[in-house]
Hints:
GO terms for molecular function: core promoter sequence-specific DNA binding. It is a single chain. 49% of the residues lie in helices and 5% in strands. It is mostly helical. The chain has a four-stranded mixed beta sheet with strand order 1-3-2-4, sandwiched between helices. A hairpin with a 5-residue loop joins strand 2 and strand 3.
Amino acid sequence: xxxRPIRSEIDYDTALARVAALMDAAPESPDADELDVLxxxxxxxxxxxxxxxxxxxxxxxxxxxxxxxxxxxxxxPILGGRSRVSEILHGLRPLTMDMVRGLNRHLxxxxxxxxxxxxxxxxTGSGRRSGKTVRWLVERGLMRDGDALDQFIARAxxxxxxxxxxxxxxxxRTNPQSDPLALQAWCAAVIHQxxxxxxxxxxxxxxxxxxxxxxxxLSRHDDGPARVGTALAGLGIALVVLPHLPATRLDGxxxxxxxxxxxxxxxxxxxRIDNFWFTLMHELAHIRLHLSPNRRMILDDLSLPDADAIxxxxxxxxxxxxxPPDIWTAGKIGPTAKARDMIAIAAAAGVHPxxxxxxxxxxxxxxxxxxxxVGRGEVRRQFADFPMR
Length: 389
């Protein structure tokens, strides 16, 4: 076990990638010990460098309700009568310690989110103007200095300060520890950026499986990621590459913007060719299969299990669009596969060898074999506006 301190964003990304590779470590094994140490180092680095304003207790409760499809009446046994639930959800009544314990025990809401200050929020939104979320947006030219975060979000979502992305089923694969306000801010920034690209949404049908295969074949070019934006624009889909906000833990998102126009947002959290193409195809699968006026946004942390049918369907379509099942099966790729096998099956599918290598790694839970084939460090540099540190 050779673990180094995390001193930079590059170290941070490397540590995150290593944690993803160790998630299935056996208890009390050397890998499990390494995972514990890395997790502590990552948490310390995030606390020092990625700290943002914590969500209010009301925001934390609403986020968990939206994740679990709960209604206000479901909270009455924990919080009291209907009027008390309403007051708490609107930030008009502080939580008692009995309520805090009940919400933590029955809904799994972190204690630190529930014991934060529960004073009623400013109606002007000025309480949201501080912290690294706003600074992050302003430094990237995404938000005007002096704007309140509420206003920035409301402009993106057509004037609503309570966007629909956290309705039941919308945020279907996000980490419970992710900050709800930061998730909203990132989605708003993606929508704003899409409007700046000159993208002309079409009224054409959703992308077909043939369209997805054509996009996947762009991966065979060294500059394939850089070509994707133009190809998607031809289908009426905007591509926005935007780093994830601190405490969001996102890989990508599929969104419906103005006039129901589809948008793919990618964070490039992991700078690898295989990860870029799988995340892209996963979000395109959501656009093809799942987005609708009632489900306008789907956010994805792909390091989490595919816990519901929507995510399993998107994973399957993404996987098969990159390498069709008949080609993968004919390749007879087993545990003892060699690099030449990855290259051969990728050639048969017309895609980059990193895609075959990454699929093999995920299938076998082995992220060391073929580590030189996955194209580490080859994606971010293809996007001129992406910060490299």
